[in-house]
Each structure stands twice: as structure tokens, then as C-alpha cells.
């Protein structure tokens, strides 16, 4: 029986069906066969890719991983693969995990990401960065992300400047979840394009004033502001606005500030913690299970009820609707 | 039902079913004739539309010539109709767009496709032409399975993929076949370069 099959002679629809039955790593291997093969595999349609600089991998369609590592053990290497102009050793841990070996892991995973965007025109589900990533590398990855659009993004990079952060906020559309984990300079401010993300976590939010909430963060379903500078009066005003119908999308709000003290009082509430029943409420918000316990009910003017809790010692306000 | 017992037969008067089911007659490009049930035809969007448009009655089927399928030979068409008869009445699957696509190859289909890759190629071609979604799914899955655990070098051999150099050579040959003057011009250009000329013109 003939063991060969003339794949590229198939009609386009049939060829596409064959390619759709291949795993992303098999598609990658096929793309390595020739320039023509790397052009043809694109017809398979959209693959979704996530880039994680922290663990130096990409994950394709939430299932298959390609890691960038340092020097390999020679016994593990099964061959060489090309990423743009770089030829690197590769190994497999399983059919779902491929290892690539580079001098520099961060630029290595950047090259792998670039290859998949270039060959497969992937949609980018997310990019997780961290402080050791040079801004130039992160910037390049964002630049080649189709339409500069991703579902999830963690912004952190080496020597991130105010201008870099502003560029990201102006040019990158994050639809689901945005983390800005890096400390920004004290004079950072931003009043440009509103955030698109439904869930926003700012680990250093000293630049966020009450006005920003309606101007920038009105679409937020979940908002976490850490290291804020809000004082008691600003929290009281925020609650007043929320009761009056502002921030209608908000379902979970957490704020931590050193400027909050034990005198924080909300109109109409005797206490900001339930020390008796200690009821717990939890719900999936975005892709996370969020919860509040020992909160007290708080009513909005439209009748909807949430839970609020103030952690005096930590200077944290939690609002859960 | 085994592949051998699937109710697709070359025309044989004795085999015409007694019950009042609608059957259609088709003829391959090598003049092999097949009688296929109306329900089995529904697996093929192309044939289903064709017979609907023709509006044949049972008498028409018997009196008029068999419907010619000019692109497919008898050996391939027999496999196609065996598959359609076996899977008649089954729902046409809808693609959810996932990659990799999850396709199970049933035992009957695996046996049916236990064939030479040349014939498998024709079967896929026919499934595509006749728009038989699930036959296309299983036959393409069989081809995809050939890639399991293969390196690029092995894939090149299995799928007969030309190298970059071979692709370039084929492209040049095609260009030359289209324009015989191209080679002469190229040679002249190379000769002038050897002689140190900066410009061709």
C-alpha cells in the first residue's frame, strides 16, 4: 500500500479540513517543511495564542505549549527548527509540550510568538509580562498583535516610562482583563481613551482620582485599586455617586489606601463589618470567582443591594454587588 | 452492517427493492451504474439539490438515463455510495471551528477507508465535490492521522511536500514553459553580469 499522500494537491476545502484535524504543534511542524507549506497552513483559520513572559511560553488554543528555555540537555534534542532567521534546538516533553532552546529566553519566546503571528495570523488571547522584560520586546509584541487587541494583558516591563504606559493605554485594546502591576512614577497621569477592559487591576493606583472612574473606567465590571491615595471623604463620595446610579456596570470594587482611617463612615450604615452573621457571598465575575464575607448590606437608590466591608487595619474597602 | 454488505450495487434488476422507496440511478465516468436510496442521497448536498431540481418520479428514474457524475470513477463512487447508504438518516455535523477538530472514525468507515492512498485521495476529492460533510471529515481525519508524531523531514516524505529548492525549480520551469524567451533573457543577463556590465539595457 502506498504510504505517501499528495497533501497539497487536495482541493482547498479538503486541505483545510485536514489541517483543522492537526494539533497546533503538528501545524507548526508542517509549517517548517518549506516556505510554501508555511504559507499554506494559514488557511486553517484563526488560532488563539497567549504569551507568558514570566514562564516563557506561548499556549496555543489553550492546550498546547511551546516553551523557550536556556541550554538543552543534548539527549533530549530531537532536531532544529527555524524561527525567522534563528535555527534552534527543540525537544518534546509530550505531544502537547514543545521546548525550544535559546541564548536568551525572553527574546526566544518573543521570536516564537512572532513566528506564530506571522505564519498563522493568530488572535492574541493574552500577554503576561513581568518586570524583567525589556520594554522594546514588549512593545514589539504589542505592535505585531493583530489590531493591537487582546483579551487579557498584564503590563510590566523593565524601565517602563510614563510615555510607554500612555502608549499602551492609547493604542492597545484590552477587552477582558487588564493588570498594571508595575509602579509608575509619582507624576504619572492619564486622561485619554477610556479603558475597554471589563476587569481592571491597578497595583499602584495613586494616580487614579475619583473623576477617573467615570471618565476612564466606566465600563468596568471589576475594579481593584491597590496603593491608592484616596481618603475617607473620597470613599464616601464614591459610595454616594454609586448609590445615585453612577458606575452601573460595577459588580466588584476593591480599594486599598493608607489614607483611610478608623473614622470612615457611610451614611445610613451603623457599621462597615458584620461581626455576627459573617455571611459569605461569592459569584463568578469575568473569569474569576469573587467573594465577600462579613459585609453589610448597602442599598442603591434604584433598590439594588450590594455588600460592603471595610477592613480597618488594612485600609481596604470592598464593595460587592 | 459491514462494508461488504452495504446496499450499494451495480445495476441488477433482481436487486431492486420491492418496497415503494425512492431510488436514484447514477453513472460514473467509466459507465458504472449505481442505484442509491433517496435517504442516502441526503448525505450529499450536491446530489440532493440535483435530484430535487430534476423532480424525478419513480417512473422517470426507470425510464430516463442514469444521472451522470462525470468527474468520479466507478471504484470511488462505489465507496461513496456505500458510505452514504450506511450513514443514511444521520444528521449532517456542523463544524464548531475548533482546532484540532475532534473527529471519530467509526469502525465501518475505517474499514471502508482501508484502501490505497491514491484511492483515498479520490474519495476525498469526491466527498468534497459531492459535498458530503461527514465523509469529508472522516477521510480528512485519516490523512491528518498520518502526521502524528512526525518531524518536518518525515512530513515532507509522507505528504510529498517539495523542498524550497524544488518549489523554486518548479516555479522557474512553469515560467519558462509560459515564456520560452525568459530563459534566453536570463542567460543574456547573466552573461552581461559576468562581463562586468552594470545595466542590462
From TrEMBL, chain A:
It comes from the Eukaryota. Pfam families: F-box (PF00646), FBA_2 (PF07735). This is F-box domain-containing protein. Residues 4-51 form the F-box domain. It comes from Caenorhabditis brenneri (Nematode worm).
From TrEMBL, chain B:
SUPFAM superfamilies: POZ domain, Skp1 dimerisation domain-like. Residues 166-201 are annotated as: Disordered. It comes from the Eukaryota. Residues 134-178 form the SKP1 component dimerisation domain. Residues 26-88 form the SKP1 component POZ domain. Residues 169-194 have a biased composition (Basic and acidic residues). SMART domains: Skp1. Pfam families: Skp1, Skp1_POZ. InterPro entries: SKP1 (IPR016897), SKP1-like (IPR001232), SKP1-like_dim_sf (IPR036296), SKP1/BTB/POZ_sf (IPR011333), Skp1_comp_dimer (IPR016072), Skp1_comp_POZ (IPR016073). Keywords: Ubl conjugation pathway. GO terms for biological process: protein ubiquitination; ubiquitin-dependent protein catabolic process. Transmembrane segments: none annotated. Belongs to the SKP1 family. Probable essential component of SCF (SKP1-CUL1-F-box protein) E3 ubiquitin-protein ligase complexes, which mediate the ubiquitination and subsequent proteasomal degradation of target proteins. Regulates cell proliferation during embryonic and larval development. This is Skp1-related protein. It comes from Caenorhabditis brenneri (Nematode worm). The lineage of its organism: Eukaryota, Metazoa, Ecdysozoa, Nematoda, Chromadorea.
Amino acid at each position: 500500500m502506498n504510504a505517501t499522500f499528495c497533501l497539497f494537491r487536495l482541493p482547498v476545502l479538503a486541505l483545510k479540513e485536514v489541517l483543522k484535524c492537526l494539533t497546533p504543534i503538528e501545524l507548526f511542524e508542517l509549517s517548517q517543511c518549506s516556505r510554501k507549506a508555511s504559507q499554506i497552513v494559514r488557511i486553517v483559520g484563526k488560532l488563539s495564542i497567549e504569551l507568558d513572559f514570566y514562564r516563557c511560553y506561548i499556549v496555543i488554543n489553550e492546550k498546547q505549549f511551546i516553551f523557550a528555555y536556556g541550554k538543552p540537555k543534548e539527549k533530549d534534542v530531537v532536531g532544529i527548527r527555524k524561527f525567522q532567521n534563528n535555527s534552534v534546538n527543540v525537544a518534546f516533553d509530550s505531544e502537547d509540550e514543545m521546548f525550544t532552546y535559546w541564548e536568551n529566553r525572553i527574546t526566544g519566546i518573543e521570536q516564537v510568538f512572532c513566528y506564530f503571528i506571522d505564519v498563522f495570523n493568530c488572535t492574541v488571547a493574552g500577554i503576561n509580562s513581568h518586570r524583567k522584560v525589556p520594554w522594546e520586546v514588549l512593545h514589539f509584541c504589542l505592535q505585531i498583535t493583530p489590531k493591537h487587541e487582546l483579551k487579557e494583558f498584564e503590563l510590566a516591563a523593565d524601565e517602563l516610562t510614563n510615555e510607554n504606559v500612555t502608549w499602551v493605554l492609547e493604542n492597545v485594546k484590552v477587552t477582558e482583563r487588564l493588570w498594571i502591576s508595575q509602579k509608575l512614577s509619582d507624576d504619572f497621569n492619564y486622561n485619554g481613551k477610556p479603558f475597554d477592559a471589563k476587569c481592571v487591576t491597578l497595583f499602584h493606583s495613586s494616580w487614579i482620582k475619583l473623576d477617573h472612574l467615570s471618565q476612564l473606567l466606566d465600563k468596568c465590571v471589576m475594579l481593584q485599586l491597590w496603593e491608592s491615595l484616596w481618603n475617607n471623604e473620597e470613599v464616601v463620595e464614591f459610595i454616594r455617586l454609586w448609590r445615585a446610579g453612577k458606575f452601573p456596570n460595577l459588580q466588584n470594587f476593591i480599594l486599598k489606601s493608607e489614607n483611610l482611617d478608623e473614622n470612615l463612615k457611610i451614611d445610613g450604615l451603623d457599621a462597615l463589618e458584620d461581626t455576627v452573621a459573617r455571611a459569605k457571598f461569592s459569584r463568578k465575575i469575568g473569569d474569576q470567582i469573587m467573594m465577600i464575607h462579613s459585609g453589610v448590606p448597602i442599598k442603591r437608590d434604584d433598590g439594588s443591594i450590594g455588600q460592603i466591608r471595610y477592613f480597618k487595619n488594612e485600609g481596604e474597602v470592598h464593595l460587592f454587588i | 452492517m459491514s462494508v461488504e454488505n452495504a446496499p450499494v450495487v451495480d445495476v441488477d434488476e433482481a436487486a431492486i427493492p420491492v418496497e415503494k422507496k425512492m431510488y436514484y440511478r447514477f453513472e460514473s465516468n467509466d459507465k458504472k451504474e449505481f442505484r442509491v436510496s433517496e435517504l442516502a442521497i441526503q448525505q450529499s448536498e450536491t446530489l440532493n439539490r440535483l435530484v430535487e431540481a430534476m423532480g424525478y418520479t419513480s417512473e422517470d428514474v426507470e425510464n430516463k438515463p442514469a444521472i451522470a457524475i462525470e468527474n468520479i470513477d466507478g471504484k470511488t463512487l462505489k465507496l461513496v455510495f456505500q458510505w452514504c447508504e450506511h450513514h443514511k438518516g444521520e444528521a449532517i455535523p456542523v463544524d464548531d471551528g475548533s482546532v484540532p477538530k475532534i473527529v471519530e472514525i467509526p469502525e465501518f468507515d475505517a474499514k471502508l477507508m482501508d484502501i490505497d492512498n491514491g484511492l483515498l485521495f479520490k474519495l476525498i476529492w469526491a466527498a468534497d465535490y459531492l459535498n458530503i460533510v461527514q465523509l469529508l471529515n472522516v477521510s480528512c481525519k485519516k490523512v491528518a492521522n498520518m502526521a502524528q508524531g512526525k518531524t518536518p523531514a518525515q512530513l515532507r516524505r509522507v505528504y510529498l511536500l517539495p523542498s524550497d529548492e524544488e518549489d523554486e525549480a518548479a516555479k522557474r520551469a512553469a515560467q519558462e514553459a509560459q515564456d520560452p524567451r525568459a530563459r534566453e533573457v536570463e542567460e543574456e543577463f547573466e552573461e552581461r553580469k559576468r562581463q562586468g556590465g552594470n545595466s542590462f539595457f
